[in-house]
Amino acid sequence: MSLMPKLFTTLLLCASLSAATDGEVIQFLKKGIGNNPAISNLVIKINGKQNVPTMAGWEAYFVAIDADVKQGSTNQHINQSGTYFVSGNVIAPELVNLKTSERFNDTITPRLNPALYTKANLISGNVSAKNKVAIFSDPLCPFCRKYVPETVSYMMKYPNDFAVYYYHFPLAQLHPAAVALTKYAIAAEQSGVDNVTLRMYQVEINANEKDDQKIADAFNKIFKTKLVPADIKRPSVIKQFEFDQNAVQTSMVAGTPTVFFNGVKDTTKAKYKEVKVK
In CATH, what number is assigned to the domain containing residue 153? Predict the structure, then answer.
């Protein structure tokens, strides 16, 4: 569950801004959120903006929030993203079309940053392929375990039509074991093991397992590797893992699997099927 609603309880549902600029939007949010005594070291950035379709004069602001939050006797560092809507001198955290009941918070997302299409995240296809497909997934997500292997296996047949990029997004609260599992996958990839992404979904492990050695044993059984817990602490593994988590945050990905087709979030997860492959 996200801490975002708790952070934003200090803000009014709808507030007035005068001739709002990006800087004024940031300052307004800082003032509202920063008034909460449990929040410290608050940093707010705007990662992008989009016009809201069918809602003339409204813009969606994609906001990244970094802060320390005190919960009881402990402090937790959070890095989250959210959407605010601005029109003239009004700002609101939610926008709904009364006629269609469309909640724009659910349908408007930022385009995928081209900088995220890295060689390390490319798992299939040619860089110059006609279409770029980005997949954010948790290897222990039940739906992902069926969707990702089927989808990627199909697109692998057409390397000139699809460049497939993969981002590890373990849902730690739902599947604690997925965190170590994805790090073992990264370690294997960096060691030159082939076809790691698809085979990773064959690993059988209790989703609540927290023993890194047991997770390593389950991984090694499928891949015939000899990885140990120390391997997932390598700087290069941590760096790639953190890169993927940052991609999750900046792209405002909230669940798995999440798919972007040519930079645009594909809520159907099936745009690739519309491509006339050769």
Answer: 3.40.30.10
